[in-house]
Amino acid sequence: MAEITQLIHQYLRHNKKFPLVFCPGCGHGIVLGSLVRSVHALGLAKDDVVIVAGIGCSGRIAAYVDFNTVHTTHGRALTVATGIKMANPKLTVIAVMGDGDAFSIGGNHLIHAARRNIGVTALVLNNFIYGMTGGQCSSTTPEGAYSHTCPQGQLESAFDIVELTRAAGAAGVSRGTVYHVKELDALMAEAISRPGFNLVEALTPCFTQYGRGNGFKSAVEMFKWLKSSCLPVERYEKLEDRTGKLPIGTFVRRDVDGLETRWANMRQALAAKKGGAA
């Protein structure tokens, strides 16, 4: 444990105050640790990593890590990340977003980032609700669930992040949880290292804004729910009754060049026709 703590501190800004700003029982700090361990495992230099964050609780992660970081407006993390990657394809660009940031306000940007297959890793922290802004329902709030903007229960269907991103054409799509930490580390490392657009959905509890209104007596109960409800996709697919179960793991693996690589190849081809350098 001490070695893990020392490792994480190598990647945190020294002028930040702790404990983290997140509420007690929030899983976002676990995702932060997983992100750091994944970058370390891949041997990436801190100066070669860019973290682009949107607005919301998840956006605070960018303030703690000692990488190149950008804190953007709500729903626009992927647009900024796309510009950074196209301007300097050598950088490892990771967009950190919440479910409201990525799939509600920024939903259109995410669909087109996946379609273009830009070489960015999208890390979506899904807690099923707008946490920082007061507990409004998001596009991933489960049907029937309580939120401050649907006190009688959510009437709309929730987005399935995995299926939506798969249909949009992403090179890689995976889902993990903050209970299954080692698996989450591996999913992130795999996504960061694969060319093209890769999305990792990290299920993380928000007891303050979601759990208390939906029958959970404590944050610990929410972690126990993750443990009992989520299982590897290989086991999930063999179930006859999948009620109340969620698959985790990698759902899409495609070996395709990212948009920035195809753009560079086009420039070289055009330059060759003209007899000059790209």
TrEMBL record:
GO molecular function: oxidoreductase activity, acting on the aldehyde or oxo group of donors, iron-sulfur protein as acceptor; thiamine pyrophosphate binding
GO BP annotations, alphabetical order: cellular respiration; small molecule metabolic process
Organism expressing this protein natively: Solidesulfovibrio magneticus (strain ATCC 700980 / DSM 13731 / RS-1)
PANTHER family: 2-OXOGLUTARATE OXIDOREDUCTASE SUBUNIT KORB-RELATED (PTHR48084), 2-OXOGLUTARATE SYNTHASE SUBUNIT KORB (PTHR48084:SF1)
Keywords in alphabetical order: Oxidoreductase
UniProt keyword Oxidoreductase, yes or no: yes
Stored InterPro entries: 2-oxoacid:Fd_oxidoreductase, THDP-binding, TPP_enzyme_TPP-bd
Name of the protein described by the UniProt record: 2-oxoglutarate synthase subunit KorB
Record domain Thiamine pyrophosphate enzyme TPP-binding: where: 55-201
Highest taxon in the source lineage: Bacteria
